[in-house]
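Notes to self after the call with IL:
- keep both proteins in one doc
- input above output, always
- annotate only the second one for now

Protein 1:
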Amino acid sequence: QGSKGPKSSGRAKRRPETINHTPVESKRGKKFRAGSSRHVKLMTVLSGIQWRGGSKFPGKVEALIAEYIRKWEPMDPAVFKLRCGPNYRVNGFKKPSVGSFYDIVAMDSFHAPTKKHVTDVGNKVDLSSLLKEGEEGWVGGLPRLWIVVMQIPNYSPSFLTSKYDGDGFGVVFYFRLNQNGIDAIKRRVGAARVTKKFVSQPLDITDAARGPYLWKNIVRLANQEDLNLGYIVGGYVQKYNAKPFLSRNCKTYHRGPAHFEVDVDIHRFNYVSRKGMYAFRDWTKDLTLDLAFVIQCQEDDELPEKLLGCVRVTALDSKCDGVSLPQ
């Protein structure tokens, strides 16, 4: 769980505030197309490889390679157990999630000199390719697209200094509203009402002001048995695997014409959490991680909870994967 820390001490080099409003652009000056970071990375690699007779790779070959190296895939929401009634606060009942409101449709990964480069991503990239024909705007108070950005520091945390920004790795997940979500809005399902209230609140609201309706992250290591984690690390993973955490006050929120975005700022997590994540940076290419996101519900008329979306990420190398953003 994250903890609120003081603002940057100034040790990290400050950059003009306009960076936060500058689109992620391609070399041709156009907006970066959402979900295309793997394609850009692939083209960079293939540009140094010659096909038969020195010609370019055929389109079908490029497509097959791109699919092979894709790092994400949809998964069954029932893997995750969520709150259910009756009287959860007393009974603590949980059951597998029945579907989700959103489906994963794309993922990007970026290397960035500061976290501002991977903040408010939805208003910097071209999202048009993620929407089906005729889809636009919001539906019954919920956005067509839900974006989650995990801002991960690449520098070693220090217990003695308060550094909360710097070189980092940004992983961006794009989810699209599915029929389950649309039906839940129309039927005024409890979890849908809670989600609608969540996105309607001020963007700068604190977790304390939100009451019980908080953003929860769930991370599950799916291939623990394939890894030699050792007794201590293995025990730690076993204890906290797939356990929801709140990342209190370590988030920023953003809206757009058809999307809502939650940026989870791991740079501001407490020292122990950041130290553990930094120690795992060499392991990421061997991990299969299941990630899910949910808005916390509490009362019987709001339960059961429903996943916003979930995704399986495989062998994402925080050192080698991702497109490097310019200074």
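Protein 2 (the one to annotate):
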Amino acid sequence: MQCQLSISVLLFQVSYILAKHCYLFYDVNPGEGFNLRRDVYLRVAALNNILNCTLVLPPWDHLYHWQSNSLNFQGKLPWSKFFDLKQLGRYTKLVEFESFVQEETKSSEGLLIDVILHLQHPTDLNGSFEEKANLVKCKKLKKYWKEDDATYGGPFWSYENVFAKKLKCLEILGGPRVLKPVLQNLIESKSNRLIFLDRAETLLHDQFGQTDYWRGRRSMRFSTHLIDIANEFRKTFLKSSDEEDGTKLPLDWRVESKLDTYSRGGPYIAAHLRRKDFLSARKSQIPSLEKTAETLSLLAKKNNLSKVFIASDASDIEIEEIMGHMPEDLEIFTFRPSLPTKGKILDGGVAIVDQIICACAKYFIGSYESTFSFRIQEEREIRQLHPDSTFNRFCGDQELNCQQPTRWKIVF
């Protein structure tokens, strides 16, 4: 009888612990792009680690830059479409949103989040930078509304069956360390298990560029099927492979360490040329097509290379114009997948394949203040190519000796 009682008490304790375990959801301003969202993930993952919660990965909603007319709505996408979940899970405890709903809630009525915490910048900075995190009265937020049962409805990644019990607003200036006490109080004193951080891009890094930042960054390995596509392209068109170029990564990011020498990189120049909205937003820092061709030709000659790979949102007509300004002995390549392949990997997958190819080149040049270029520079640091071959950018036509990117070097 005593044994049965002990087992019952143990089962009750286990059930209680599971019931109290916290799950952290988040979302980002809809206008933010794919590559900034990857950086926001690192901030929230670091927060998740110090809270000891489980991070529920937000589905990828349709983003502004995913504009292919040949594809249908690109939303409600799982992270496994683009990233290796096993590797991500070696940095922080996590679960896909759909898996959480199916396996954890066991409910056909949808998901009821305990509290929305809407993050916003402080209004009383007065030119000073003082870390703070204060709950404030919510001003009218049009994106959320009261349902008949007093719960809150909202966009919630385009899902119609997700609601929240409470809505709170928090002015914050700082990173996970500053936010931790507020969330701990919500979790411990208010029995809030499911917490949703809205406008998570407001959260800053605690340790940008330091060891833990790079641990999280190294864990962001791409999905195997995207790596395979990029490697096949490199092999077929650029005579490049990880084995020959010294860019092969270990199967587990946790065993990576500093190399004695820099990696060689593949026998080609790689360039990321940002166009479209940057032609107005960064007009003086974006080169003309003729200046782009001139820069790439000089780099190829300087590095004794005859192949150039271009990743760009430029139109095919613009790419052809660049090619028309370049010497005939230079081979120019872009990644343009077949419609069936594009239908499988989508615009996000195309961007990642572009980044992998750029990350493995002997020399890379990017675009001014582009997060797409930043992510490539980080991938090259992880592969330990020489910084001189990584932290470079195009100059505008009127810029002489323009300032090159800050060198955020990897730390192990």
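Annotation: The CA atoms of residues 244 and 266 lie 8 Å apart. The mean pLDDT is 92.
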